[in-house]
């Protein structure tokens, strides 16, 4: 299983994630990249942990398999040894009936054999109490003792004839003793056979129990491995599903954010257009206002001038009216005088001229009631009445038309003014409403974005906290399970070693009990063979143990055999003289000497038996002491482990509380910052609203003023038009007066002629005036006005026609001005729209700046939170490392104490298996190194942080110390977990090795022995180990990297970023 890859640090990814964050879309993309990078880092860390766990499981499986193989080999060896011993015992037991037959054939040696069997019979029951495995030794000693007795009986047969009489005397006693010895021997043989069967059954039971235990352990271990594999697969599937869900959610969020951004951009563009139009319209209104002000000033000047001219014309008109009235009186008086004077030749001509002169201008006068008018006067009166009626009708109609036209013009102007006012008010209200809706929508969108950001930040924090808690819990559970498995495996190994040691001790006791029954040469041969056996056993043990504890292990293992050898030598020394004496001493001539020898042999056997019992009791005491010590040490270790676990849990709780406090502080600070930002935004919005209101009020006031000025201007224009018309009429009247003056100058001559007639007319007029004064005192003003109107009616008709044409022209001008005013109003609206657009653009710019500041603050807060979290995590990791080192030290302290034989034996086996495991790991690392060097793929740089053992060769305590010293006191970035995991795994790979240096594996040493030789992979001479470079790569390496094959599917699946 190869590692999956590594994240080369957070710098590149964060730089790539935070490179272009412009606006909402950029921030969303950067946050998505950051989250993607974090998720990939977490997945890489999980793959590292899974890889480490798989390696641990493989190592445990290999160690258990090696233990099983060693245990089976030892059991097979023991079974072979027991079979050989049983065959030997059976052969010896088969030789016994042959010796009995030989005894029956020879009559003389029977007594000697019977006397020789007595000490054996007396010692066999004693040997039963000495140990469990003594009956086989009896079976061995019986035939040897019989052989000795047969050898002794050969010289005694020569003197059998001399002692025939004595033999017959003691024959009865010997038979009785022989029968008793035979019965005792049979009982002892039966007991020995029963005990052998019991031992066989016990051995079978122990073998079956050990096989069952190994099977149970294998089944449990397989189940746990399967459960771990399933859990890891489920965990990876869940992570993959979460990754897919997060990617989908991020894509959806990005699409929604992009749509929002586009909508906001379109809204901003429309608002900008509106503001620009309003600005243009406002500028046009300002220009129009300035033009109107200039027109008002000019109209004021013209109105003052027209007022002055009107006053002058009124004065002149009054003077002219007085002059005309005086002339009329003069003419009338002259005409009366002419009429009254008879015989005047030109009276008719004068009257016709007077009627012509008076017809269009003068008002008719009522004749006196007492006076009868003539035919000329009646005609004149009728003409005057007709002219008066026509003039009054035409004047009334003209006045009505003029007034109606003036009223229509006023109505149109009023309606246009009202329409403009309503349009302006509606436009302003629409603007205010649009601004209010935009402000409300902006506030709502800002509040929604704030809420979303808060929720996202809270969810991210909760997810990070949950992930960290779950990872910590999983690591703790894995650590606890691994510790329990290690303890169980150690306990099982100890039990197996105790069982093997007991079986070996039993076999050694059996062998130690054999020699006293044998002869001196056989004992010497067995003593010569025993050192060779011990040497073989020591060689086997030394092959299984490591080279760092050979002397201590040899001493501890040689203690028991040395004691056994010493005991055997002492037994031989104590037993050999008797036998030698029996061999070398001549046969006594009497039976008391034989009895004394038998007693001495019995005493020797008893002393040997006592020594063996003392040794057995000592061994039992030693075993009891060792078991008690082991139990005490196990209890101490359990207490230490419990205390350390409690300390670790307390520290974890403290760290979790600290992290929670830090999180609460960060959340409080975040809330405070959000509150401050909300307050600032509310204040800014209020200020903007106040400014808009002020601007709106100012614009309304300006528009009111402009409308008032326009109204005043229109009124001034109307007054000016009226004054102009009056001036024109006055000018026309002046022209008429000039023409009248000319006519009067022409008619003066005629007037002189008709003075008489005029005098008569004046008399009539004086009479008529008297009547008028009496009758029409109240109507003098009307008569004067009528006379004036009669004079002016013809001129007025022509002037009114001209005025109609002028009024039509004025109406056209007013319509054109109304159209221009409409255009100006449209321009003002455009200016207002432009102004609104500019205001919206300014607001958008401010909003974007505020959003950028908010995003920067959020980024800074998130970076601070991430840095705090990484620092806390690094601190926790450093604490975990320190705790693990303390645990290792506490585990290594009891190991550094006095080493015993069983401990050293166990350590040797475990270290042998670890060395085998290291050989396999080295082979794998060499193959992987060769593969990576052949490919020159950049995946090597990623996989190197996952490499389980990056340095070829085995770990020594010096390298281990260096790696522990190279660990940083404070881990800054998250990918440093790779180095931490690597060191932690390397430290766990080499347990129980700190006592002495470890030799290199024979697979890598050229001078290794044949017992541990392993096939060494051939390394090509051209291939060199790949070295990590951070930027100074040669072009050849780059070309090789470009030509390298694509990465595998699992790499692209987990590390697509």
UniProtKB/TrEMBL annotation:
Span list, region Disordered: 82-190, 331-399, 504-532, 545-586, 990-1057
Gene label: FAM184B
Name used for this protein in its record: Protein FAM184A/B N-terminal domain-containing protein
Biased amino acid composition, Basic and acidic residues: 118-127, 141-153, 164-190, 347-356, 386-399, 520-532
Coiled-coil residue windows: 282-323, 443-492, 602-764, 790-838, 873-927
Domain of life (superkingdom): Eukaryota
Annotated Pfam families: FAM184
Keywords: Coiled coil
Ranges of compositional bias, category Polar residues: 574-586
Protein FAM184A/B N-terminal domain span: 49-105
